[in-house]
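@channel sequence for tomorrow's demo:
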Amino acid sequence: MIEVCAITSGRNVPSARFRVRQLIEPLAQHGVHVTECVPAIGKYDALPDQLAALPLGVRAPFAVSWPFVRLATRIPGIVASRRSTVTWLERPFDERLPTLEWLLGTPLVFDVDDAIWLTQPWGVQAARRVACHAARVVVGNHYLADWFSTLTTAIDIIPTAIDTQRFIPRTAPPNERFVVGWIGTASNMPYLAAIEASLARLMNTFDDIDLLVVADQPPQMPTLPPERVHYVRWSPTVEAPILQQMNVGIMPLPDTPWTRGKCSFKMLQYMACALPVVVSPVGMNAELLASDTIGMGVVSSDDWYDAIATLYADRDMAAIYGRRGRAIVEQRYSVDVVSACLAGLFAGLV
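structure tokens (generated this afternoon):
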């Protein structure tokens, strides 16, 4: 049995949940025992409300010291890593501070699923620091691999896995209304807002098109009919079944260095639920679109309108796209496939 200490960023951080936590049980079936160390204060946790509400003069010392308090909660994980066979680090401790990754147990596997070097102010230094200390750098797509290839040749491209037992196609009869769906975090909400005009045009043209948004905050899209915009607050229990209420999954993105580093997890979730996809052909999204006819890559406002209207009009074609997407996820991106790849990587380090 290979003992792996996984150091993650927080309880609800997506990369911790999907690139590490959901793989723990499948990895055990390959002889890899993973112990996850979750910090008491997550990497992205803000100052507690009680402290944030204090007057600025009183709050300032707490705000200044808060990053160091968060960093201190990583010490138990560091200690645990020294007793493991392999250390698996999901993201640097903090891209804004010179931190303690060099104290982690070795061999170190550094897991990356975003263009973390773009994080200000010292993202580049943090990425270099950890990559140069790692035995292997595991990245979620080719764009990330290209950047890290300037630092190391010890790179493995392993995509973010989808649990195809949780994310499954709908079994209920089709919706009476046509539901355009988007799932994400509040930080990505501007990407959705960027196609508001196209969505407004669709909803004005077709009386039975609704928008379903699953996020940690409700959308602010004032030009859309409010009675046809449905918001569901994200939670781990709701994220899989709510996708089954959608007829098409959308993923708008601008083409930037940051978005090219995304691992298309939202798109893969839609595909696992046999939804046709309409997405911006940016980064890994373009790779998935090229794998088979599973949906449409769109750029302009007219493209967004035309693509969704086409799927609205031809439900049989939409169903075919959805089935193809589901098959691709099962073959290449399922938890079983990805955990087997990781198990082989860990075994090679021992």
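heads up for whoever presents: The first strand starts at residue 2 and ends at 7.
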